[in-house]
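During the second year of the project, the team shifted from modelling isolated chains to modelling whole assemblies. The rationale, set out in the original proposal, was that interfaces cannot be judged from single-chain predictions alone. As a representative example for this report, we include one of the complexes processed in the last quarter. Its constituent sequences, exactly as entered into the pipeline, are reproduced here:
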Amino acid sequence: MSALDPAFGWTASAALALVFAQAAWHKLRDLGAFAAAVAAYELLPAPLAPLLATQLAAAELVLVGALLLPPARAGASLAAFALLCIYSAAIATNLARGRRDIDCGCTGPALRQPLSGWLLARNAALGALALLGAAPASQRALGLADALPIAGGALALFALVLAANQLAANAPASRTLHARRRAAEARR
Amino acid sequence: MSDALLVSNALLWIAVIALALLVLALARQVGVLHERVAPVGALALGRGPRVGEAAPGIEAPTLAGARIALGGVAADGRGTLLFFLSPTCPVCKALLPALHSVIAREDPALRLVYASDGPEPEHRAFAEAHGLDLAAYALSTELGLAHHVGKLPYAVLIDAAGVIRAQGLVNTREHLESLFEARERGVGSIQEFVARERGGSDTLTH
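Output from the structure prediction step:
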């Protein structure tokens, strides 16, 4: 099997760096709210939540830097994959407990996202990006012409992740709206 | 030829990014619209006492040890907001600051009563951790049953005459505000509001 072109790995890593940068920014802007979200997962003793919240936000920031540094990129991609697995495990545990009403904590307090299977699918897609970033690539030297697809691809993927997050956050409101409609129709 | 391909590629990337941003903007607008169309009155569930009926008269024990009278004509002429919560419900916790600020703005004279049931030590620790008034924290299974509370957090707004003015599931600050809105407009719940709106618009659409 011939090795992958390095532009693919770079696009994936750059997109992932943007996603983590946005996530870390949300967490650092309101650490208290993120600590509350971590505590609501009820996986660790509550007094540890603020410490863990700070560490998760710091880990995401370090990942952003490392994902964009050529020598650290492969290692950072695997670390990003591990972090996404931890998040997914925490979400899956609470889904199994039937606690769908707690906030994911993924998109900050302004955009509440209740836990759902969609978050697992999203994390799996991001995990695939991380693995793509870590996959061995051919030795082709990247030139100026590669900057366009890498930057463009990363930006487009990032915007799509944001849009998907927003749609997922809209979903509960959308369901209530449909429920109200049905209730109103049933009354007629 | 190669230059032409490069230019076409650049143009395509610009188009792809612009479209992705457009999708993002549309998704955000849908979110804003959802907030705007949330009508007055929280979602009413179950078959408990309805808006306009008298609230069930119950004397519930509080965490402070005394009993608190709910329902019936209030001697001091104050209305009551019954807020059903549980220490294990994250939304309830998150809603407490909003609850206090909405009451302070809409009706500072209102008597706020927290209501729940279950083991007392757990509730005491919860109330103390969140600075809730122990004398206004009722622990009574009977109270929840009387109001047919199925989902939390649930709020019931009772006027000074002991009549339920608004009630429903409250998940956000907007839902809380809508209780007061519903009291002013005399609309019982979301369903009633939607039914009225549809009744009004039917003459136009048909």
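The interface with chain B takes residues 36, 40, 101-103, 111, 145, 148-149, 152-153, 155-156, 159-160, 162-163, 166-167, 169-170, 173-174, 176-177, 179-181, 183-184, 187-188 of chain A (CB under 8 Å). The radius of gyration of chain A is 19 Å.
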